[in-house]
Give the backbone structure.
Amino acid sequence: MAILRKTPWMFIFFILTGGLLGGVLGEVLGVFSPAGVISDLFLTGFDPGIDPPFTLNLHLFTITVGFTIRINLLTLLGIILGIYIYKQA
């Protein structure tokens, strides 16, 4: 079995990959599950971020900064699973 070099970049990679896969799985299960409690559980989340985006107009150029992160239940479980796999590798 290969040994993983535990660097901060690999840790971030595992967190992002786990969150991405969990978020996609949550959205897919939310769409295909029947309407009701289970669908609400998968589709309910919160969106922290900058909304509306911050815009700085300097007449020569315009800078717009904004982001939003969509987090649901399976996104959090995916992040936890990514951290667990990183620690076990």
In short: The longest strand covers residues 54-57. The radius of gyration is 18 Å.
